[in-house]
Amino acid sequence: MTSERDGTPGRALAALAGVVFVFLVAELLPVGQLPQLQADLDATPAQVGALVSGYALVAGVCGIPLTLLTRRLPRRTVLCAALVWLAAGQLVLAAAPTLAVAAAARAGIALVHVPVWGLAPLVAAELVEPGRQAWASSRVFLGTSLALLAGVPIATLASQQLGWRPVTGAVAIAAVVLAGTLWRQLPPGRAERGPADPPPANRADRAGTQGTVAITGGTLLVVTALYLSYPYLSVFAARVGIERAGYAALLAGCGIGSLAAVWLAGRWIDERPLRTSVLTLLLVGVLQPGLLAEAPAVVAVTAVLWAGSIAATPVVLQAAVIRVAGPGGDLTSSAYVVAYQAGIALGTWVGGLLIGRGLLVGAVAIALAVLSIPLLARTVPGHRPLPR
């Protein structure tokens, strides 16, 4: 990564990646802690699972209203306050005597999910000159891949060895430390704005809502497509005998593939936005039938490639947000995050209905991914309609 003297604020970008890393670990950790939570809180697996689904529901419903409330606050202040809020919620969760208290803590944390995920890539884009903004925002999503590759698995293993409460509290400590780091690393002149320094005009406001509608519609379609199969990857793997240690190795391979894909997409998205977007969106759909192959090697290779396309998808979508609304597009970015959450819920539900119907899930995924392409292609300046 280029040093700050060379014009790229590497430490600030790393801190922003840390923000999404710690939020994603906190969001997904109850999945790995399910047995401990179930025993300690006297709950059923479905009730513990509601800690995750309820989080997504609260984030989706409250995301845009909270973005409106915090829109004119300094961005550095919003992100650091959100990290402190996360820490407080994790501490309440770690001390929760009942499932109801745990659910309330999770709901409280979810309130700040959309503003954080909407702001972090935009702040990254403001740290660099035009022409490198999509690249800068893609560096933030390396935190997502690292959370899935190392953060969640390590925290899950630690929960098994030390108990879920100490590990949940450790996430709170990490959030506080990161808040202090972020405050020091973000330059207030370029990445912070307040009431005395009004936000730049949102280009989406000036040009109308067509670009925002295209982004949210495309996001809903492609995220629904990828979540038709993503929650059920373990089922597809077990079908061909990839279980236990083999499945752990597969997940590690998927994590490495995700890191590589985010890195490559970030390098290409500014210079070749249409080609990078089309390739990523197509792979989300066309690779899914390969998960139903009979050969374990084919399933494994397909899963690693497909994981790469999944990881690159937020890079493509966030780049579209920046093209349409600029780094000042808080509302457009928040609308995209809400659409992403809706796609997760819809895709998981529809995928559950289709999982036993063979290649139908792959056909639906391909159709949805293809339908998302013309919508997101509209965000590329001077694009031409794809040939029929």
Describe the secondary-structure layout.
Layout: H1 10-32, H2 34-40, H3 45-70, H4 75-94, H5 99-110, H6 113-126, H7 133-140, H8 142-162, H9 164-185, H10 188-191, H11 203-207, H12 210-227, H13 233-239, H14 245-268, H15 273-286, H16 296-325, H17 330-354, H18 360-377
Helix pairs in contact: 1-3, 1-6, 1-7, 1-8, 1-9, 2-3, 3-5, 3-17, 4-5, 4-6, 4-9, 6-7, 6-17, 7-14, 7-16, 8-9, 8-14, 12-16, 12-17, 12-18, 14-16, 15-16, 15-18, 16-17
Give start-end ranges of low-pLDDT stretches: 1-7, 190-204, 384-388
Q: Per CATH, which architecture of the largest domain?
A: Up-down Bundle
What's the number of extended β-strand segments?
A: 0
Computed over alpha carbons, the radius of gyration is 20 Å
CATH fold description of the largest domain = Growth Hormone, Chain: A
Structure, explained:
- This protein is mostly helical.
- Helices cover 77% and strands 0% of the residues.
- The chain is built from 18 helices and no strands.
- Helix 2 packs across helix 3 and helix 12 runs antiparallel to helix 18.
- The longest helix has 30 residues.
- It is globular, with a radius of gyration of 20 Å.
